Amino acid sequence: MTLPRPRTRIQRKNITAILEAALEVFSQYGFRGATLDQIAQASGLSKPNLLYYFPSKEAIHAALLAQLLDTWLDPLRALDPAGDPRQELLAYVRRKLEMSRDFPRESRLFANEILQGAPRIMDAIEGELKPLVDEKAAVIRGWSAAGKIADVHPYHLIFSIWALTQHYADFDVQVRAVLGEEGADPFPEAERYLDMLFTKLLAV
Amino acid sequence: MTLPRPRTRIQRKNITAILEAALEVFSQYGFRGATLDQIAQASGLSKPNLLYYFPSKEAIHAALLAQLLDTWLDPLRALDPAGDPRQELLAYVRRKLEMSRDFPRESRLFANEILQGAPRIMDAIEGELKPLVDEKAAVIRGWSAAGKIADVHPYHLIFSIWALTQHYADFDVQVRAVLGEEGADPFPEAERYLDMLFTKLLAV
DNA sequence: ATTTAATTTGACCAATTGGTCAGGATTACG
DNA sequence: CGTAATCCTGACCAATTGGTCAAATTAAAT
């Protein structure tokens, strides 16, 4: 059995550049709307050079989705059943909002996939996300039953956390346009607002 | 001056079919990712036939966006400064959720435009949406100052209504996949959940 | 029934798209 | 330094894309 060669300096440089450029283009235009020429140009390579590193447009896209899914579930996984319910949920909200602030394009890549009907990530949704959500929903339901937090529908609670945090990434241009100069950076106020919203919602 | 001829039976039929088909395709794939062939096929016409009614792909898309923008702002416009603040805001939430339920593709068309950086609707956002939001934000701020509702950041309140209601349309495939068979129709529970969320949030 | 207007579409077009490939250029390594 | 490996790209390809157009067909008006 042959060991795969370690990645060369140039490979590491160019693969990074390609994925960075592809994230920009795919997150904006989706899979069908993105072109290899756009990605090649944005990465500073020629199209055949880009295809030297990735066999196809599909492969680039798949690599991005794999990266995304590798980290997207971590915040929900971190929800500790043994922890303080309110702190755990507020920490989850904060973590999700931070991700929207720090990885807006990844959020938009995901949104784009969902808008298309999730053709490439439905396996991951059904196979990983759903079981995880089911598990955490049961935890939340237990917390409610024990009177530790208000009685809320666990699934809709989780959806609301996703909706409220991802919105700042996915609809970023709208949020910034509506806020104008006054709200140059929406995230500090968003964090305060969401903290308050969920604190009140969960209060017994 | 020549009066425009009224639309013929066939024109009405075919223009409707084209816009219906185009809404399906554009809301899924965005402008760049959609093709005239797809739209033609979905509308039951040939491509040249489709182009007999609309001069270009751009023109079809523009017609859809014009329709969308014509109705999208109505619920916020209906927020009555003289009404009961809590009832007005809860009515707005309900109306927005109904729109997500009844016009999910329109919501996704809008989301797609925003993900692309809003290249074709930024004039409408800055020229119509922002002034309207500014106006209603001032109303909400007045309500808070008068102690009629809790002191919340008006803009983030409005964003949260958009985020929470549109999510059910935009992320519909994810919501339904996570809920599985148990949540065949998420909207009744969503309405209850959002009523409660905003009731608690706005409570003084 | 005839004429005029509207509608439909196969064939075609230039440009774009996701790729392929051979050969030259650059890099890495002994 | 020489050589092997890696990297790069102009030229090319078939398929697709947003259209165009003239002639045939259908619908509406007289």
Kindly describe this structure.
2 copies of one chain form a homodimer. Chain A has 204 residues and is mainly α. The first copy, chain A, folds into 2 domains: 1-55, Homeodomain-like (Arc Repressor Mutant, subunit A); 65-202, Tetracycline Repressor, domain 2 (Orthogonal Bundle), CATH 1.10.357. Helices cover 76% and strands 0% of the residues of chain A. Chain A has 11 helices and no strands. Chain A has helices at 9-33, 36-43, 47-53, 57-72, 74-77, 85-102, 104-115, 122-145, 154-170, 172-179, 187-202. In chain A, helix 6 (85-102) crosses helix 7 (104-115). The longest helix of chain A is centred in the N-terminal third of the chain and has 25 residues, at 9-33. The model of chain A has no long low-confidence stretch (mean pLDDT 95). The structure holds a DNA duplex (30 and 30 nucleotides).
List keywords for this structure.
homodimer; 204 residues; mainly alpha; Arc Repressor Mutant, subunit A; Tetracycline Repressor, domain 2; 2 domains; 11 helices; DNA-binding
CATH superfamily of the largest domain in chain A: Tetracycline Repressor, domain 2
What is the general shape of chain A? globular
Uncertain runs of chain A: none
Mean pLDDT across residues of chain A: 95
The assembly state of the depicted protein chains is homodimer
SSE succession of chain A: HHHHHHHHHHH
Name the pair of protein chains with the most residues at their interface, and give those residue counts: A-B, 57 and 57 residues
Question: Percentage of helical residues of chain A?
Answer: over 70%
Tally of DSSP helical segments of chain A: 11
Content-based structural category of chain A: mainly alpha
Strand coverage percent of chain A: under 5%
CATH class of the largest domain in chain A: Mainly Alpha
